[in-house]
Amino acid sequence: MENGHKTGNGVAAPACEVAKVPEEEIAAICARYGCDKHRMLDILREVQDRYRCIAPSTMDRIAAGTGLTRIEVEGVASFYSFLSLVPKGRVTIRLCDDIVDRYSGLDAVTAVFEEVLGIRTGETSADGAFSLETTPCIGMCDQAPAAMVNDVVLTRLTPETARSAAEALKAGQSPEQLVSERFASLTPHERALHMVGNNIRHAGEVLLGPVPEDAGLSNAVSMTPAQIITTVEESGLRGCGGAGYTTGRKWRFAASERAEKHFVICNADEGEPGTFKDRVLLTERPHLLVEGMTIAARAVGAREGILYLRGEYVYLRELLEQVLEERRRRGLLGEAILGVKGFDFDIRLQLGAGAYICGEEGALISSCEGLPGEPKTRPPFPVNRGYLGYPTVVNNVETFCHAARILDRGAKWFHAMGTEGSHGTKLFSICGDCLNPGIYELPYGHTVRELLEMVGAEDAAAVQVGGPSGTMIARDSFHRKLTFDDLATGGAIIVFNGARNILEIVEYYMSFFVHESCGYCTPCRVGNVFLQKAISKFRKGLANPEDIDYLKELSGTIIETSRCGLGMTSPNPILSTLKNFPLVYSAVSKPSKDGIRDTFDIQSAIDGARKIAKRRSYIFDKDFTQ
Fold this sequence. Notes:
Its cofactor is FMN. The protein has 626 residues and is an alpha/beta fold. It is 42% helix and 13% strand.
């Protein structure tokens, strides 16, 4: 996460200090969230939005208002990339730096913004009007290049549209006016559609076809919690985020825990580069999502729920808040839902602040608790002790939507679709080198080749299945099936043609994992830096055959010793390409002249890793104290 700041002339600016902000204003912000330390992320986001930074004196006031220490507040403020301890511009432009955006013309778009605004990427103008930054994937890979301008999203940028936008902003137009001159009169749903197209290419039978209103919830209120769970189990529904854990079993474990409270959390933090399916469901099926969460709440006995929305999807916040309020008015949220005494459940929206790691359920729960988004040690698992120590069900958007449809149409209906072990339909996010990027809802079991034919990518040379943490396959594997037992994926399918450099893609993905590591454990934090440096050697033609063994050995160590799923999957871009594209590596490696391999000093490596990832190692840094 970057908190660096330069003025337009490249001179370092002083640390953020807003001493003139009246103490009562900070106190009022804290009071708006009940002075609850668990709402720290909400408090800091509001301060950031209002004052453009989190100043030292402000952190002191927030600490006093929430009963925390200054260092605890600063730990949260310094963790998330959308929060800053130094001043940001009144308009902050974040250009998506995903590999798909790069291949779609990002460099030319960036050059135009730099020219018109008179600043370089990573700088803020001397008058404090603009900041220009890059950020990892913002969920718009089907319409790249894309950017966030404050809370507004711009897609399909070209040098011409970038120039028009930059000049309009410099002339005093608001980011909202870039979307529509009548932005204020549009409904939240219309605003979302004006910014981002859904690109639904194939609507399937379950989620994107006709969906009756709250039919699943109506059935659920006449069933016992045990009957609801049994129905979900018999349907064969598995988690749609990638791990594929049986949904009904997860609900049963949570329901069986005797506790004062239970919670239901929706993980809408789809940060995996190339994934944008949940974005479409949040836009087109928000009621179905909330219906699914409400059904889960009845099944496990939860009275409170949290919808965790990734910070990059802030443009959908108003729409989702409107949906929640509408459902409260209609008796579909709150007390005595659908008139059933004792069926009480409500949901609050929790907005993230730019941290890929929060897609991991333990880190997501930490974030909801007002902490840095660091994964939790397992066991215990969230279904046993999750949010605030209570049993918690965490599922993603697609899973909850499927659950609502299953309660409507029945377990047999859903189970009959797909293949053995992979039942129902799946939303695939297709992007990259294809004619028709977008969303395809298909039953499990299609081959990669069949999918490529649908999207117009017959010239594909490589396909990244499941995003960077998944598997990259070559043409000789296009016969494989998209199922949990063959090629499992949370939904991301990224297509690359023969003109793309495999090692360039791998190096980008490793840089992504280096940047997004939470920094807690050294295997992930430092090991990924070593892997990135090693790939750089291959790209420069400086590697030798022994370096291939080094890549495999180090990858295995990172996978075996990392604390959470990020480290356990981050070497996958290397391991899958070593397996499926071996000639790429052998072609650029050559024996060393003296046969001597480089050695390294751990402290020097950690220092380099700290500078690259802009975080410290909690375990091996000599100067780190908690």
